[in-house]
What does this fold into?
Amino acid sequence: MPLQGPMDDPEVEEKYPGSKEYAVCQSGVFMSGLFATVTGGLVTFIGQSALRTRLPWGSNHAMMVSIAAAAGTGWVVAYSRSKECQQRWYEVKSAHDQKLKLLAQEESGDQPTEVASKPDGQPPISSIPTKTNQYGDPIH
It folds into this structure.
């Protein structure tokens, strides 16, 4: 029998849409962060072991450097993947909120308002020339 948690409750899914997908994504983040930590530590330690005669520090310092590299690698991977999960959950929640707003407008009989377009005389924003530096970067 699989484990049941609060994300399996329909009330939680109704209140927080996309929470189940977010939990699955965060589980993947944890596993990839753990894998990056172990791999980063092993690669750093093996590399230092191969170059032991050329490095200015002993084996104790090599272990400390490996641990620091492993922690840094795991943190960077977990942080970036976690940001992706947060962004996806935000998009799902925004779409759900927009859908609820449209349903509420339909029930009340209001017509959804359209966004006014730009007058034809104005050029699109992307065609406005911008100044650039010697490297081609835009100057604001």
